[in-house]
Every structure is written in C-alpha cells, then in structure tokens.
Amino acid sequence: RQPKELPKIRRLHDSVVNRIAAGEVIQRPVSAVKELVENSIDARSTAINVAVKDGGLKLIQVSDDGHGIRYEDLPILCERHTTSKLSTFEDLQSIKSMGFRGEALASMTYVAHVTVTTITNGQLHGYRVSYKDGAMEHEPKACAAVKGTQIMVENLFYNMVARRKTLQNSADDYSKIVDLLSRFAIHHIGLSFSCRKHGAARADVHTVATSSRLDAIKSVYGVSVAHNLLKVEAQDDDPSSSIFEMNGFISNSSYSAKKTTMVLFINDRLVECTALKRAMEVVYAATLPKASKPFIYMAITLPPEHVDVNVHPTKKEVSLLSQEVIIGKIQSLVESKLRNSNEARTFQEQT
Ligand code: ADP
Ligand code: MG
User: Which domain of life is it from (predicted)?
Assistant: First the structure.
C-alpha cells in the first residue's frame, strides 16, 4: 500500500535548474564584477574600466580593450558551458586562464539583463546584442565600437526577490567592488584599472600600468601603507616537498590597522586561504609588540598540478597539495623578516 503523502520525484525544468545554478555562481554584485574583469584579463586587455550603479544592482558595466568576441560566437556566447578556454577535463590541470567553465556569462543572463558590445581586430564596426536566459534576444546589431568588449549587466537578481531585498538592505557591495578592483590592480600591474560609480567624475580606483609593485600599492592603498612595507621573497625547489615561489610585501612594525588586509594570488588567481591568513596573524601577534593587524600582498606560484582550481563555485578558494608545508615555510620566512626589521629598528633607536 502506497501512503498518498509519499513525495513524488519530478524533473526540474531547465529554466529552474539554470536559475538555481546561476544564483550560486553569481552570489552578489561583486561576484559578477569578478567574473567580468577576469574575462577581460583572459582577453589580454591592457585597460579595464568598471562603472557601477546602485551597488551593482542597477548596473555593472565592464569595458576592456581586449581581443573581442567573434561574430560567429555571439549566438552561443551566453549558453551554459560554452567557453574558448577549456576543451578536455585534463586541460583543467594546466589551465592558465581565470575562466574555464563557461558558466559566468550564462549565469548572469539567468539573473539579470546582459548586453554585450564587442569588436575584433580588423573589423570596421562592432556588434551589440542582448541576452536573456542563455540566449540572444535578437540578431546582433552592427554598431560603432572601440577596441575590445563592453559588457553591461542590468537589474541583477530582478527575478530573485529575496536575494535582491537582502542586497538592497546591505548596500555595501560598492565597497566590495572597490576592494576587488584594488586587489586586481596591485597584482596585474602591467594593466590599468579604474572603478567608479556610474556618472561620477572621480574614480575610486585608478591605476596606470607600471613596472613597480610598490608604486601600484601606493596609488591604490596610499603612502601610509606603501611606506611601511617589507619585501618578502622565497624560492623553494626541494622536490621532496613541493616546488613553489613566493614574492610579496608585508607590513612592518610601524604599520597599524585594526583589520588584516590579505591580498593573495596563487598562480595569478585571486583567492582566499583562511589557513594562511590565520598563520600570518599569529606571526604578527607573536612577533610585534603592539599587535597591529598586518597588510599582506603575496603572490605564490606552484606547479599547476598542485593546485585544484575547481573546488568552489565562485573559484574563491583553491585547494593546494601540501598546504601545511607551504604555509609553514611562509610563516617562518615572514617571522624572520619581521624579527630582523624590528631588531634593526630597535637598534637604530638605541644608537
Ligand atoms: P569562461 O570564462 O569560463 O570561458 P564565461 O561565461 O566567463 O566563461 O565566458 C564565455 C566566453 O566568452 C569566454 O570563454 C570567452 O571566449 C568569451 N568572453 C567573455 N568575456 C569576454 C571579453 N571581455 N573579451 C573577449 N571574450 C570574452
Ligand atoms: Mg569567465
């Protein structure tokens, strides 16, 4: 006998599946900005400009001067799992581009209104086309365009009432976007970045291409940060553990802040690593008398096969082979650097 309240399993409609998946990839306005900027970087741009209205809910606009998108590709551009970057699963092991899953643009079209304007090298004019739910809303229209691609995302989460309400009340996504662009700008120093509120004359992040990391940090985070940094560097090619390279800047004992700023790139990917951040905070608290929270910029290079980039829907975290060993090494390096600089300072003050 079948009790009549037994739940029946149904197959979800594609549009439901896609919207649910999209909500995971694009969690908030800043996640859309991250995906768009990474696409611009992947397109070998040298200048990336971001404009935002209403914390990104009304409008996110990212313009680049990259290689553009081929006319023939426009019909499938925003379909799920369409990409120019990955073809076999094995490619994931050696992938250099930020993107690889072909999900970002598609996701945006399921939770917002997306318009793409693009021109490829050697073309006389560009094309503009709008997308909804993975598909073009009309044929691409010829239009005037400057080199590269501009993507507009309008009315984000218009069809996700709860998400939109929560975000409207929090209203701090613009600062998250500024923070994101700041991070990109001090890592990709050969590119110029800007980020502003739509229509504003002044940009809140504005960098020009430079060869000096310290200059980039100065222009983004200010002199009070840049003047209080120590350079850290490590090379390790002990094949028994793992081959890694690290370089960065860490705040010295004169720096003071209530919150840790940890800007971490692993194989050129902006990621978070809670374990490493904690380890750094522990070193600072133990080494420096007045326990200020540190500023840390760190770029780590590892063999690609030691980094799993596909562990998080927003690619915010990566998982590392022999993470503990690596963190241990960085921790002792930072500790001795801090100790040395502090002793030198104390010595200077005494003489
Ligand atoms: P992924 O980056 O994982 O490939 P996306 O959905 O982010 O997936 O983008 C799909 C494709 O659209 C990319 O593979 C790329 O070919 C193209 N594309 C997206 N943004 C740009 C851009 N700004 N310039 C040039 N091509 C782009
Ligand atoms: Mg992408």
Answer: Eukaryota
